[in-house]
C-alpha cells in the first residue's frame, strides 16, 4: 500500500489487488474488507473494477483508494515525478514501470477474474518469508521486546515457537542482498510473523510491534497505530490461509477462533494444536475446510462483528453438511476475545468455551 497526497490535499491509498481482503464481485462493483483500517467484519470497501477507483464507507475510515492493476495510468501518474501526488510512505511496493493502457472492458475482466491470483512479486515474498522462518524464530527468542510482548498477552514463548511464530527484525532484512529482496520484505519489518495454511498453500500474517513498549495495553497500542502515518497492525500475504497445523493433521472436531493470539491462548490453556484453528479474520478459507472435519465449534469474538460472523459461518458450515456448535463470549466484562480473557482471568475466564468443549466430546 502506498499513500499519496494530491496538491489539493486529498489523500489516496494506492493498493495492489492482492491487498484486497476476500474481494467479491457484487452488482458490478468489487466489495472487500478494508485493509486500511483493518476491518474484516463487513466489506466496507467498494471499488469500480472499470476505473479502479473506490472508497471505504466505514465512518471512521472513508479512505479513497485506487487499485494499481485496474488503472495503471492513474497510478503511474500519481507516483511519477512531477505528478499531482506527493509520495509520503511506501511499504513494500513492487517496482513501477510504464504499462500499456487497458480498455475499460479489459480492466473489468481483470478485476473480476484475477482478484486472488498472486503476482510474481507476491510469490517471491512468500518464498522469502518461508526461507527465513528459522532465522525469524531465533530472532524472537533473542528479542527482549518480542518476549515481553508475548508475556503481556500471557503467551509462553515455547508455545509461540512451537506454532512457528517468528520476528522479522530490521537486522535480518539488512543481511539480505540489496535490491528487490529488501524492498519486498520492508513492510514486514518489526512484525511478529505467523505462518498460515490452506489446502495446498502456505501464507503469512504479520503483527507490527511498532511503538509498543512493556506495560502498554493492547487497546492503547491499537489507538496509537490508528494515527496518520503509522504502520497497519496486520498485513497478509496473497494467498494467506488460517493459523493452524497442516490440514491433513487437523482433528475431525475443530474449534474455530478469530485471531492468531486467540489460538495461542487456547493452546496455552491446554487445548491440542490439532483441535484449534484461527481464521485470522472472520471468513472461511476460500478452499473450505478439509472434508474429514465433521463438527465445528465456532468460538469467535464477543463483539457485534463476531456475533454477526458466527451466524454467517454457522449457516455456511451447515450447508456443507457439518455439525456446528456456537460458543458466544458472554458480555461479562472479562474480555471480548479469548486471548484477552486468558490474559485477564486465566483458565477460569475460558469456562464458557471449556463447557462447550466438554459437550462437544
How would you explain this protein's 3D organization?
With 361 residues, the protein is of the alpha+beta class. The chain has three domains: 2-113, no CATH class; 120-236, Alpha-Beta Complex (DNA primase DNAg catalytic core, N-terminal domain), CATH 3.90.980; 248-360, 3-Layer(aba) Sandwich (Dna Topoisomerase Vi A Subunit, Chain: A, domain 2), CATH 3.40.1360. It is 32% helix and 21% strand. The protein has 13 helices and 16 strands. It has an eight-stranded mixed beta sheet with strand order 3-4-5-6-7-2-1-8, covered by helices on one side. Strands 9-10-11-12 form a four-stranded antiparallel beta sheet. A hairpin with a 4-residue loop joins strand 1 and strand 2 (11-15). Helix 10 packs across helix 12. It is globular. It starts with a strand and ends with a helix. Mean pLDDT is 86; it is low at 81-115.
Amino acid at each position: 500500500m502506498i499513500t499519496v497526497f494530491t496538491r489539493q490535499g486529498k489523500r489516496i491509498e494506492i493498493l495492489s489487488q492482492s491487498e484486497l481482503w476476500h474481494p467479491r464481485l457484487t452488482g458490478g462493483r468489487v466489495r472487500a474488507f478494508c485493509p486500511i483500517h483493518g476491518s474484516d467484519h463487513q466489506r466496507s470497501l467498494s471499488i469500480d473494477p472499470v476505473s479502479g477507483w473506490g472508497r471505504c464507507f466505514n465512518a471512521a475510515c472513508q479512505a479513497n483508494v485506487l487499485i494499481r492493476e485496474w488503472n495503471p495510468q492513474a497510478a503511474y501518474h500519481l507516483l511519477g515525478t512531477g505528478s499531482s501526488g506527493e509520495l509520503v510512505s511506501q511499504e513494500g511496493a513492487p517496482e513501477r514501470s510504464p504499462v500499456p493502457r487497458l480498455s475499460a472492458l479489459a480492466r473489468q475482466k481483470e478485476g473480476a477474474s484475477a482478484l486472488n491470483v498472486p503476482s510474481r512479486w507476491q510469490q517471491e515474498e512468500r518464498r522469502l518469508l518461508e526461507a527465513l522462518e528459522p532465522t525469524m524464530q531465533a530472532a524472537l527468542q533473542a528479542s527482549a521486546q518480542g518476549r515481553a510482548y508475548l508475556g503481556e498477552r500471557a503467551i509462553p514463548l515455547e508455545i509461540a515457537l512451537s506454532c512457528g511464530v517468528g520476528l522479522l527484525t530490521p537486522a535480518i532484512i539488512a543481511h539480505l542482498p540489496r535490491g528487490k529482496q529488501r524492498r519486498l520484505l520492508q513492510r514486514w519489518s518489526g512484525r511478529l510473523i505467523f505462518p498460515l495454511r490452506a489446502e495446498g498453500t502456505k501464507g503469512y500474517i504479520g503483527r507490527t510491534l511498532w511503538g509498543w513498549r512493556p506495560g502498554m495495553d493492547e487497546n492503547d497500542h491499537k489507538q496509537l497505530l490508528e494515527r496518520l502515518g503509522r504502520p497497519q497492525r496486520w498485513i497478509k500475504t496473497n494467498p494467506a490461509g488460517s493459523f493452524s497445523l497442516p490440514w491433513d493433521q487437523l482433528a475431525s472436531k475443530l474449534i474455530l477462533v478469530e485471531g492468531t493470539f486467540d489460538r495461542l491462548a487456547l493452546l496455552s490453556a491446554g487445548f491440542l494444536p490439532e483441535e484449534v484453528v484461527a481464521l485470522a479474520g472472520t471468513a472461511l478459507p476460500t478452499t473450505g475446510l478439509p472434508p474429514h472435519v465433521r463438527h465445528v465449534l465456532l468460538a469467535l469474538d464477543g463483539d457485534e462483528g463476531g456475533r454477526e460472523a458466527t451466524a454467517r459461518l454457522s449457516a455456511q458450515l451447515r450447508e456443507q453438511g457439518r455439525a456446528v456448535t456456537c460458543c458466544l463470549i458472554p458480555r461479562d466484562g472479562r474480555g471480548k476475545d479469548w486471548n484477552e480473557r486468558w490474559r485477564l482471568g486465566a483458565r477460569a475466564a475460558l469456562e464458557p468455551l471449556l463447557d462447550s468443549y466438554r459437550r462437544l466430546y
